């Protein structure tokens, strides 16, 4: 009779412990669900912000490309226009020189000494287009430096992006909430003790 009373008391205490454990686990479950919901919202926010920032970065690179393209085109037009003007002046000078050469050749066959002297003085004078400047052809191919600069920018930008992406990945930690090792399970283990005074007697004992 006394043992039954003790076991009944122990049963109530055990029930209370289980109820407390249930309540605690329900609380843990609710907290875990809230944490998962918060985690999902945080992930979605990070995703949206990342997409927005990378989109802005792409737009910035495209604007830079447009600026460099416009700069190259403008410089190309300026140099080409100057070169075309110089070409026309050189062609005109060559035309004048050939005309004078032909006139000098014709003058060399004249027997009129007065005409020879008058004509030779005017023909031997320097042509009016003789002041055409000579531009080195290497100055027309100065875009190699721009190409090298853009290539260097590409390399530096790729290196920077790789370094920063690695830092971002290192900051994103993945935590396993389900233990997969013995030590992991032991962290959540709960030790139950049995009261020898309340346990059922083994068979064979009086």
UniProtKB/TrEMBL annotation:
Coiled-coil stretches noted in the UniProt entry, renumbered to this chain: 15-49, 73-107
Give the transmembrane ranges: none
In this protein, which residues make up the domain named TRIM8/14/16/25/29/45/65 coiled-coil region? 22-163
| Keywords assigned | Coiled coil, Metal-binding, Zinc, Zinc-finger
Q: Tell me if Cell cycle is a UniProt keyword of this record.
A: no
InterPro entries from the entry?
E3_ubiq-ligase_TRIM/RNF (IPR051051), TRIM8/14/16/25/29/45/65_CC (IPR058030)
- Do the record's keywords include Cytoplasm? no
Q: Which domain of life is it from?
A: Eukaryota
Q: Read off the PANTHER family from this record.
A: B-BOX DOMAIN CONTAINING (PTHR25465), E3 UBIQUITIN_ISG15 LIGASE TRIM25-RELATED (PTHR25465:SF5)
Q: What is this protein called?
A: TRIM8/14/16/25/29/45/65 coiled-coil region domain-containing protein
Species the sequence originates in: Cirrhinus molitorella
